[in-house]
Write a sequence for this structure.
């Protein structure tokens, strides 16, 4: 049981990092970015192409991928700023659905049918925990995800730029009138989230299939984790992501192993409905 | 039984005219295009299902096409695997089974709203896809083969007729329901749950009836897909396919039947053409995504809205326009927040003036 739980740290760390970005984007920009996984996956594909076409080493290829991820975030951020700055959360979220579909179509063209080999950046020595060997890389990954959550929250609360971001999230037009560069900050948040998502996807790239959609679907479990944090608390979202990864890992070898992907959502739905049991009416209307 | 109100004849008449044209055209098509058209009709019914829950009731549910798996498995099991029930009737049974599944998928909507509901229903998509891939549910194995119905007609004309008659029947049902107490309660909760409740409308009942009817529609469409493809292929309920249908529904404005019709025709025909031209269907998917983003940025660009606006401009339609001017195929209403100074009269004193901002 403990061994399975610890084995789930890798995917759990990925979900945690993505969940933090989802909460950040929802809180700051009012968008539930369903395309985050696809954006990260598309940028991660660039590293595979760099390795194959230009013979780059994994390290530089990873840097190129992260830069590509940030650029993808900039492009999509500009799209959102240009056309959907004053749209409702639902409309922006639906836009990200369309973006997801589009990116998956492009990513499928890149990955489908081809075999790529990418070394595991997190392979290396292990430490023994409860009698089970755990790669240090996966521990670093989980710690990085939790640190990301804490760091972003501290950044938002303690820095001038964080205060500007919070002002923007509360009243974007008022913040703009007060001289805050709303458009620039919006694009910057998109770029940051996309770069983090790229790193997260790079972690699982060596162990995943050569099919693009499963990489894009990583965001779905991260969304579940973000829901556990009620789309507000990044630390709870990060912990939720780790727990989902562990839950999947526990279920995998059991009798319901075929339904590994389904189990977290059954739990999440039950938890969410229980937490929201008193929300008989919508808050806004 | 549903407290039906009088239905204006125009939408139903238009549907009937379009249906007759499509059916007649079917006899002139080759067997291949009859097949393509049949698949398009099934996808159009998925569009009706999405349009009902999101377009009419304003609930951001992404799982409607995935519920089609229930109808697919029912038809594959009852008609293909066991041979107990012939095709048109197994479709109906599958759709009936789709109602409780639709209700179950919609239960979270009683407490979750907006993006929370979107995420949870996306989870439902994953759950159904996982179950479909596992192949443990009766009818979900691809070995359960269903032969396309012919009804004594050549080629795929039998399947074509079945699919388009199904679309006509179900689109007619949505038109009738739109004017019924159920349909009006869906529109009411999309505008304001509290106001709807204040008018005596049961919000719970409105939401559940929307999901139940949408589940019925989606399961019927899923069954038709099996009739066309021969088996319940899990890839039909892949999250990408589900999200693509959702994006297409937004692009076409499937809140109205003509948007759903356009969804089916556009999706099936574009896929077939891309295949014939040796291009990958991914290209079509990418185009759908661009189209959906365009419509979301400019809602009046949705196909169904453009059609209705053009029809409303016809001289003989002015007196009998049956739709309000605010056409909203996919635009859940959010409360207007004052973002600028309200329009004042010229003599009203200025409340606050700020100068020399950085």
């Amino acid at each position: 049981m403990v061994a399975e739980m610890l084995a789930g740290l890798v995917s759990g760390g990925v979900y945690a990092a993505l969940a933090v970005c989802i909460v950040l984007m929802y809180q700051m920009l009012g968008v539930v970015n369903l395309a985050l996984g696809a954006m990260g996956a598309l940028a991660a594909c660039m590293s595979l192409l760099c390795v194959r076409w230009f013979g780059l080493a994994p390290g530089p290829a990873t840097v190129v991928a992260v830069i590509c991820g940030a650029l993808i975030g900039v492009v999509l951020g500009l799209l959102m700023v240009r056309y959907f700055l004053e749209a409702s959360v639902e409309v922006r979220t639906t836009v990200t659905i369309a973006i997801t579909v589009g990116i998956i179509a492009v990513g499928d063209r890149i990955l489908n049918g081809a075999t790529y080999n990418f070394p595991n950046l997190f392979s290396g020595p292990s430490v023994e925990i409860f009698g089970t060997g755990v790669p240090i890389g996966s521990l670093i990954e989980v710690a990085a995800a939790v640190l990301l959550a804490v760091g972003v929250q501290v950044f938002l609360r303690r820095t001038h730029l964080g205060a500007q971001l919070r002002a923007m999230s509360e009243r974007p037009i008022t913040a703009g009138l007060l001289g805050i560069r709303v458009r620039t900050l919006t694009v910057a948040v998109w770029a940051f989230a996309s770069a983090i998502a790229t790193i997260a996807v790079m972690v699982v790239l060596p162990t995943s299939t050569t099919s693009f959609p499963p990489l894009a679907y990583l965001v779905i479990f991260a969304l579940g984790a973000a829901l556990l944090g009620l789309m507000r608390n990044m630390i709870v979202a990060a912990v939720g992501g780790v727990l989902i990864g562990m839950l999947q890992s526990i279920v995998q070898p059991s009798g319901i192993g075929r339904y590994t992907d389904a189990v977290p959502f059954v739990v999440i739905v039950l938890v969410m409905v229980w937490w929201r049991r008193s929300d008989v009416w919508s808050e806004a209307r | 039984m549903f407290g039906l109100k009088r239905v204006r004849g125009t939408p139903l008449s238009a549907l009937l005219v379009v249906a007759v044209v499509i059916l007649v055209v079917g006899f002139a098509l080759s067997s291949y295009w009859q097949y393509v058209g049949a698949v398009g009709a099934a996808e159009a019914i998925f569009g009706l299902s999405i349009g009902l829950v999101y377009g009419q009731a304003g609930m951001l549910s992404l799982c409607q096409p995935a519920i089609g798996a229930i109808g697919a498995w029912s038809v594959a099991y009852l008609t293909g695997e066991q041979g107990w029930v012939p095709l048109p009737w197994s479709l109906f049974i599958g759709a009936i089974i789709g109602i409780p599944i639709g209700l179950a998928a919609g239960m979270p909507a009683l407490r979750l709203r907006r993006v929370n509901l979107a995420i949870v229903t996306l989870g439902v998509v994953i759950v159904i896809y996982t179950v479909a891939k596992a192949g443990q549910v009766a009818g979900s194995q691809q070995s359960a083969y269903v032969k396309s119905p012919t009804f004594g007609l050549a080629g795929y004309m039998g399947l074509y007729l079945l699919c388009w008659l199904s679309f006509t029947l179900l689109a007619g049902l949505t038109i009738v329901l739109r004017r019924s107490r159920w349909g009006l309660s869906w529109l009411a909760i999309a505008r304001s749950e509290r106001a709807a409740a204040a008018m005596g409308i049961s919000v719970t009942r409105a939401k559940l009836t929307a999901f139940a009817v949408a589940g019925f529609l989606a399961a019927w469409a899923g069954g038709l897909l099996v009739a066309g493809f021969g088996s319940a292929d899990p890839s039909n309920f892949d999250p990408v396919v589900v999200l693509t249908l959702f994006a297409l529904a937004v692009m076409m404005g499937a809140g109205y039947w003509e948007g759903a019709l356009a969804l089916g025709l556009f999706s099936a025909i574009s896929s077939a053409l891309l295949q014939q031209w040796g291009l990958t269907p991914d290209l079509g998917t990418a185009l759908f995504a661009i189209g959906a983003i365009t419509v979301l940025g400019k809602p009046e660009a949705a196909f169904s809205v453009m059609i209705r606006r053009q029809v409303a401009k016809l001289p003989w339609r002015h007196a009998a326009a049956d739709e309000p001017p605010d056409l909203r195929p996919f635009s859940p209403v959010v409360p207007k927040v004052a973002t600028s100074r309200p329009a004042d009269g010229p003599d009203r004193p200025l409340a606050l003036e700020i100068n020399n901002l950085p």
Observations:
- Chain A touches chain B through 59 residues (CB under 8 Å).
- The mean pLDDT of chain A is 84.
- The CA atoms of residues 120 and 207 of chain A lie 8 Å apart.
- The longest strand of chain A covers residues 126-129.
